[in-house]
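Sample entry was shown:
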Amino acid sequence: MKSIKHTAKKIITVSALASAVAFASLSFAQAEGQAKHCKVQGPDRLFSALSVQDSQKEGFNSIMQAQHDQRKALHEQYNDIRTQERAAMKTLHASTLESLKTVLTEQQLENFKAITLHNRPAKKGDKHMKGPQMAKHQKGSRKDAHKEQGKKASEHMITTLELSDGKADAFKDIMKAQDEQRKVIREQYKETHQAERQAMKALFENTLVQLESVLTEQQID
């Protein structure tokens, strides 16, 4: 049990440092005249966590600045695709609202808009990335949970909007069609998202290789 706890603690520590390295490049792009407290939270914090020596800082800064520039270039490269996907989702949402006009009253439609806006999930960028093994393990259960959650949400919406049985069936058909079209859109851009993730992974691995010429083996770990 002690060994398991020790391993878990080590994994958490390494993961925290890996996250810090992945996002530290943003701090190196800040102007020199920024407030002192911002610098303490950026490179100085990472220097302390990794025990970076003065003789290592210049090389470390150079590598992390290069990583930041390349990350920015990758984001720009795939930005148009993300914009296209968001536009497609926006068009689908507008189309769904048009379809719902044949089923809901004006007030019910306004209530629907308010509820869906309130329950809109956070952007992916706001979530922490999970390890590949955990993601693989959770994929099936997450899919089932999402399906069940969608079903409950639909039932809750029908109750909240006080729809009659006839309107409830029509509402379900429209929302089901929207869900299917949303899946089509996601599938359409799936390969692009995977390519972007692979590019980011390759960049991170390349950064680690470069850091081997600056940091000790323990600092790399």
Observations:
- The chain is about 80% helix and 0% strand.
- The mean pLDDT is 76.
